[in-house]
Design a protein that fits this description.
The protein is of the alpha+beta class. 32% of the residues lie in helices and 25% in strands. The protein has three domains: 182 residues, no CATH class; 130 residues, Rossmann fold (3-Layer(aba) Sandwich); 95 residues, ATP-grasp fold, A domain (Dna Ligase, domain 1). InterPro entries: GshA, GshA_N.
């Protein structure tokens, strides 16, 4: 199933898509030149939004779950990318331990672990799963006739291992599938094994505003290369730090910054003849799972937040208090699948696109956060030419649209690389 773009494509945006598709060879060379001196994050997922006049990343996750939602037909892409990534980091690697989220009982998350395990096994690695929680006991789960076993992690001589049937399983590398929202794990300090990605990429340390600061740089370089308006692929944003959502002075500052951003967006809408109502997403500057997010169309809405919305903005995953927010331009999602709003999510391993899916929500509008309870996932129906455009077809045909998504996602990936590696 392929979503329908329910809007007339803006002429400037059409120019952008055509430039990307018709100059794909030069763009791939541009990316290669950027990756020569830049290490890529081991894996990532990038949430995109397509409004028909603008396409942009809105979130980049460096500890992605959801591998079970990818099209299994393209698992060879993931296996090949994993093999290349492991060879670069640890050529002699033969074993790996995946560290999952600590307390998840979500069957879909376990399916994600099964999919990840399968990818690594097919890349030639022995794989086990070990939990960071010091109180964790070995647990077996039956997931649709497949068994998944999670062991407690142990540590000796600066090496992490698990005990399986009385035998130590000591890996060459550790894969974090835990976003470390609750803090930097002391257990992993001073270990000699390679940790993928580095713990510094965890949400205890990482900030969305810092990511988009680097994305500003990358988007500017790319749009200068194509000679087109940077705004077409880059959302405006601002931040407010050391805040308390229940403090009126903090709310006034957020309202003032929101007013300034909305004015800038309206100027762009006027320039390009866009008749949509601009809006902003205000969200916690750290964390994921769609927590700590509100949407506004007018600055006055900030001063009128009710208790429910203030509570929603006050804490995120693992009960972490929100003390900094990012105020980000909202991107209308104009792609409709089964009469529901959808947004593409693109997955990468190393600097390669390996697939993606559409996140769909039947009870959300095009200006709302879709990463919330009730969402559904549909694997992106990649065609054979998905990794390169089809020059003989319309720029909005599926393989070309997906190629454009892959380009924008890789720009976000490049920004993430600069963010965490410098």
């Amino acid at each position: 199933m392929i979503p329908e773009l329910k809007t007339t494509i803006n002429s400037e945006f059409l120019k952008l898509e055509n430039l990307i598709i018709r100059n794909s060879c030069e763009i791939e060379q541009w990316f290669r030149s950027k990756w020569l001196d830049q290490e890529a994050p081991f894996y990532a997922s990038v949430d995109l939004r397509n409004s028909g006049f603008k396409i942009s990343p809105v979130d980049t996750n460096l500890f992605p779950a959801g591998f079970n939602n990818l099209n299994p037909q393209f698992e060879p892409l993931a296996i090949q990318a994993t093999t290349i990534a492991i060879e670069k980091i640890c050529p002699e690697a033969s074993k790996i331990i995946i560290i999952p989220e600590n307390h998840s009982r979500n069957i879909f998350y376990f399916k994600n672990l099964l999919s990840l395990t399968e990818i690594f096994k097919n890349a030639g690695l022995e794989v086990e799963i070990g939990n960071l929680d010091s109180s964790f006991q070995k647990t077996e789960y039956d997931i649709e006739n497949q068994k998944i076993v999670i062991y407690p992690l142990k540590k000796e001589n600066n090496k992490v291992f698990i005990e399986k049937d009385g035998v130590k399983f000591t890996p060459c590398s550790i894969l974090l599938n835990n976003d470390l929202s609750s803090g930097d794990p002391k257990f992993l300090k001073d270990i000699t094994q390679t940790i993928l990605p580095n713990t510094s990429a965890g949400w205890f340390n990482r900030r969305k505003s810092n990511h988009f600061k680097f994305y500003n740089e990358v988007a500017k370089e790319f749009t200068d290369f194509l000679n087109i308006d940077e705004w077409l692929i880059n959302p405006y944003f601002d931040v407010h730090e050391d805040m308390d959502i229940n403090n009126e002075d903090d709310l006034k500052i957020i309202a003032e910054k929101s007013e300034f951003l909305l004015r800038k967006i309206k100027d762009k809408y006027t320039k390009y003849g866009i008749d949509h109502q601009p809006y902003l997403i205000i969200k916690a500057d750290a964390g994921t799972y769609g927590m700590g997010i509100i949407t506004i169309q007018e600055p006055s809405e900030i001063m009128q937040l009710n208790r429910k919305k203030r509570n929603k903005m006050s804490t995120i995953k693992d009960g972490q208090k929100v003390s900094k927010v990012i105020i980000q331009e909202g991107i209308h999602s104009e792609e409709i699948l089964n009469e529901a709003v959808s947004e593409p999510v693109v997955y990468t391993i190393d600097h390669y696109v390996i697939g993606g899916f559409y996140r769909v929500h039947t009870s959300k509008d095009k200006n709302e956060n879709l990463n919330s309870p009730g969402m559904q996932f549909f694997p992106t129906p990649f065609e054979q030419s998905c990794l390169m455009p089809d020059q003989g077809r319309d720029c909005n045909d599926p393989p070309n649209r997906f190629y454009v998504y892959g380009v924008i996602a890789r720009l976000a990936l490049l920004a993430a690389a600069r963010e965490i590696y410098g």
